[in-house]
Design brief:
The complex is a heterodimer of chains A (161) and B (107). Chain A is mainly beta and 161 residues long. Chain A contains one helix and nine strands, in the order αβββββββββ.
Chain lengths: 161, 107
């Protein structure tokens, strides 16, 4: 819990908030000095369309995981009309997810919704697809607390561990 | 608990960067998620941070193993949180495979 944004702050409040033990002096509480963090890392995960539902469309915009039903079992991943990647597998339905360099992971449903689709030169199956991305954000915090020099208790208004 | 293992499918290198040779900048891995004797595979690609490498921490490309490369790839995508989410994404597929264990086609 953050320290109050006004009123009285004691050095004991700092010890409790930042987990210091033993006798304390203010010089132990410089920002980024080990007790008072300078940044906060937040991780969020985005799911599209949701964590449990899958997209599938064979008309524009294309969505889906398409796989050649025979060797070389080429996979074609489509999301919003963009072909993301092609890669081959040693067997049919051998790969269930693909993580792109941009951080999105595409997951296909366990079963194909359409099979035996004749594209002329290949016969394919189409699996519905969803995607998820983990994003890490680093935010500067405790910016009112100095990193060196003069420091006072009022510098800690709103500071947080 | 889902176990995960890695296999290097491809490495892409900068032939020379920061006076180092064959600096790995992009990786492709096969990931295998296993539980209770069944498994599903994924494919993981990542662009690696090569701006902050140094001679002290550099590993020759010929001495790299899959776990090291996977650790770099996972870090580039968000670290432990990414890995947990990746595992969770395969949970349902593993559950289905677990339920299919022992089934035989009749007749």
């Amino acid at each position: 819990m953050a320290l109050p944004t006004s009123g009285t702050i004691s050095i004991n409040d700092l010890r409790v908030e930042f987990g210091d033990s033993g006798s304390s002096s203010l010089s132990e509480f410089y920002r980024g000095g080990g007790l008072v963090p300078a940044t906060q890392t937040t991780t969020t995960t985005t799911y599209e369309p949701t964590a449990t539902t899958y997209e599938y469309s064979l008309v524009s915009p294309l969505y889906g995981w398409v796989q050649d039903e025979s060797s070389p079992f080429t996979n074609y991943l489509y999301w919003n009309d963009v072909e993301l990647v092609q890669f081959t597998d040693s067997s049919f339905n051998a790969t269930s997810s693909y993580t792109h360099t941009d951080g999105w992971t595409y997951i296909r449903s366990s079963g194909a919704l359409d099979t035996g689709i004749d594209l002329g030169d290949i016969i394919v199956s189409v699996f519905p697809i969803r995607r998820q991305k983990t994003t890490t954000t680093v935010t500067n915090i405790n910016t009112g607390v100095p990193t060196s020099g003069t420091i006072s208790l009022s510098d800690f208004y709103g500071a947080t561990a | 608990m889902i176990d995960i293992s890695y296999e290097i499918l491809a490495l892409y290198v900068y032939p020379e960067k920061n006076n180092l040779a064959n600096v790995v900048g992009k990786v492709q891995l096969r990931t295998t998620f296993s539980r209770n004797g069944v498994s599903v595979n994924g494919r993981l690609e990542a662009l690696l941070d090569t701006d902050n490498i140094s001679a002290e921490t550099f590993i020759d490309v010929d001495n790299l193993n899959a776990d090291t490369v996977a650790a770099w790839a996972i870090k580039s995508h968000g670290g432990d949180e990414f890995l947990e989410n990746l595992k969770n994404a395969h949970d349902g597929l593993l559950t289905q495979k677990e339920r299919e264990v022992g089934l035989v086609k009749y007749p």
